Amino acid sequence: MTDNQDGKKDLFKGILESLQQDGNAPLEDMDITAFLQDLAEQAKHREQGQENTHKKMAELGTIKLLPQQGAGKIYFGMTREQAESILGQAEMEDGFDESKLCFYEMQTKDGKNELVCSIAYEKNKVYEITLYDSLASEVSVTLNGVDVFKEKAENAVAQLEKIYASLCSFQEDDKDLATEYSFEAQGIILWRESAFHPKLLGKSDFQQMTAEEQEYEKRFWHFNVVTI
Q1: What is the three-class DSSP state of 222?
Q2: CA–CA separation, 133 vs 140, rounded Å?
Q3: What pLDDT is recorded for position 37?
Q4: Please, are residues 189 and 180 in contact by the beta-carbon 8 Å criterion?
């Protein structure tokens, strides 16, 4: 996320606004998780009976997040054509002539296509990059040496606060149970669909869940998305 992106503190606000099919639908009614799942399902249907021509995820190598600069081989200011020479063509795009939001899939080692990132373009130039935790199966995504998808959320936040010598902002009362953390000076947002921490293990709500539900909730001990 570059310096001139005023007002982009809400991780998915721009994404959700661009995806609204009905301009009168309230923003909070949009479900980004359902949208991403639907996108993955559409990709599955497209793959049936077709040769998989997506670029391979492993070819990205370790992705180093560089605040104010870019992520891995993708840099702010790159043209869309330059970015897509690395990522392949977008699976979906939305927006207007000068502002586009594009979603990219890449191929895993077992031949499946996974949504790996979305890029916002302004006048055909990269100005915001969002990466998804599907990358973690084959690629490390690091920020100053911290693996943002493989490190437990509270540990990742603590390490980054120490590195940047500044506290991140979050909205929930309990920092360990927040879903979005923002390092505003660096232009970084870390997000997870829900929040898990071991302190929840003793809570009655958690204990009343089935074993399967508990395991699902434990997935959110890690971040799902990072935006720069």
Answers
A1: coil
A2: 10
A3: 67
A4: yes
